[in-house]
Specification:
The protein has 600 residues and is α+β, with helices and mostly antiparallel strands. Helices cover 35% and strands 23% of the residues. It contains 20 helices and 23 strands. It has an 8-stranded antiparallel beta sheet, sandwiched between helices. A 7-stranded mixed beta sheet has the order 1-2-3-4-5-7-6. Strand 4, helix 4 and strand 5 form a beta-alpha-beta unit. Helix 1 packs antiparallel against helix 2, helix 9 packs parallel to helix 19 and helix 19 runs antiparallel to helix 20. The longest helix has 21 residues. The two termini are 47 Å apart. 45% of the residues are buried. About 2% of the residues have low confidence.
Length: 600
Amino acid sequence: MVKVRAARPAEAEDLTGLVMRSKAHWGYDAAFLAACAPELRIRAGDVTARRVVVAENGRGEVVGVASLEGTPPRAELGLLFVEPSAVGQGVGRLLYRDVLRRAVELGVRRLVIDSDPHATGFYRAMGAVPVAEPAASAASPAAPAAEAGGTALVRFEAAPVPLADWARAWTGGGRAVHLGNVGEFNAQFADATLDREQRPAHHYACLAAFYSPYPAALVLPRPVPRGWTELVCRQLGWTGVEVYDGLLDADPGLAEAVRARPALAALLTGSGLPLVPWGRTRAFGRLAGRPWRDGELRYESKSAAHGLFGRILADGGHPGIVLPRQWRVDGRWAAARMLAARTRAGESTVLKSEHGVGGSGTTVLTPARVRAAGGARAVLRRLPRGPLLVEEYIGGAASRGDEGPRDLTYDGFVDEAGRAHEVGGAVMEVADGCYRGATVGPGVVPGWAEKSLTAFGAAVGRELADSGYRGWFDVDFVADGTGRLAPTETNLRLTGPSIAFMVAARLDALRGAGHLVRIADRVELGARLPEAQLDELCAALARGCAELGAVFVPAIPTGAFEPAPWLGVLVAARGREVLDAAEAWVRAEALAVGAMFGPS
C-alpha cells in the first residue's frame, strides 16, 4: 500500500534522479533533459522550503514526489513526478490529493498548476480547471512535465476548500457507519402504496454508500457487487471501507438483523463512530442505544406536515410561500365526489396517501385524465387502498415566462443537541408526481426562489427540533406561476437530493470547490449484464465522463439484475453544460449495451 510522508533532506539527490527519470518517460531528448536539469534539481534545503513530500510503497521504495510552494492564499503545485515503473498505479492521484489537502490546511484558496500537454488529461481527471493565464516556461521547476522545444505549458487551477461546515456537523467531521435500513423505515408506516416485499427499498439501500461524505462501513440488506464498491471508493477517494452485506433473507428489519449478530453489532456500535441510518426507527434506536421518542416521525405524515406548514405561515413573514388547500376525506366515495366536483369545475387535483416515498401514493389528475379514465369513481378504484388526502394542484411556472424549475427541495438536519443546520436547496426532476432525480450545487436554485426556500426550510427545521425530532429532513416545494413556492411535504429521513449533497461535499473537498452533482434514480440498461460485464460498463462510463470533464459514480447497481434492468447514477461537473452532456452520454451508453447481443 502506498503512503505519503514528508521528504527528508538526505533524500534530495535520489529525488532529483526520480524527477529526471519521470521527465524522460515522456520521450524528451538528452539535450533538453540536460537543459532542464538545473531547474529540476532538488537540493537538501528545498525539502522543507518547498514542502516536498514523497509517496512510498509497501517495500519502503519512493515512487513519487510532490511539492506545495508559495504562500496563502495563492500557491503552486511545484513538483508532481512519478517513478516510471509506478505510472498508472494511482501514485499521482494520491500525491495530488495530498497537495490539495495540505493546501486547505495552509489556507490556500487558489492552487496554480502549469502542466505539460501530456499531463492535461490527468489534471482534468483530478478536477483542476484550465485557465487562460500564461503558464511557466517549458523548463520551469513549477512544471510537472515539459515538452521539448519549449512548447507552451497549459495552466490549470484548483480551488482548495475544507469539508463543508454542515458536513462536519453531520458526522463530527469524521467517518461514519452507514446502515441501509430503507425497507425498515418504510415498513413502520404500513402504507398500502408501498411494495410489501420492499424490493425497491432494498435497491435504494445501496445509497447507504453516500449517507455521509466518507464512510467507514456500509451495512446492507442484500448482496452488492464488489466491483461496485471498489469503483465508488476510487471515484470518491475512500480507503478502508468495510462492507457487510446480504444480512437479510426475509425482513425482520436491518437493525434487528444486525442485533441478531452480536459480534457484528458490538463491532459497529463499539467503534466510536456515528451510526447513520436512512431514517430513524424503533429498532434502530435499540441498536444505537438511542431512546425512541413517541411521535418523533409524526411530520412524515403528509397531513401532519401540511398542518405544520399552516402554523408556520400563520405567523407571517413568508410572503414567497403559498400553501395549497388540503382535505382529508372519509372513505373512497367521499373522495370520488370531491374529485368529480373539482373536475366539473375544471380544477386539477392531487390525491395523496398519508405516507409514501418517491411519489408512490401521489397521483396528479387533470380534468382530462379523469374523464379519460372513465370518471372519478373509476380513478379511485385503480388506486391502492388506504386513507387519502385531496389537495389543490398548484399551477406551473409558465406564466413567469421562463423555463425555470418546477420542483425544488430544501435539505437540513437537526443534530442531537437540537440545533437545526441548513444544507441547501436543490432542483428535483419529477414526472407525473414521481421523483426521478435531483441536482445540487452553486447556482442551481434560481435567485427568485432561493430566499423564500431557505427561510421557510429553516423555519420547518426549528419546528422539527422543538418537536423532538433529530436527524435529516427535507421540505419539498412546487413553484406556482407567480414566483411563489408551495410546500407539499417534509421527509424525515435521507433522500436522493441528500445523497447528491454528500457527494458534492466530498468532491469539493477532494477536487476543489464548485461541483454540481446530479443523482438520476433510473438510467435504463439495454440488457441485463453479468456482474463482471456490469463492472466493465461502469468503469467505461467513469472513463468517458472523465474525458468530458465530469465524474461518474454508480449509485444503485443492483437494479441492473432486474428483468427490466436499470442503474441509479451520480454525475458531477463544474458547469451545467458539461453536466447535461455527461448525463445524456451515460444514458445513451447504458441503453446501448443491448446492441452487443445483436438484433432481438
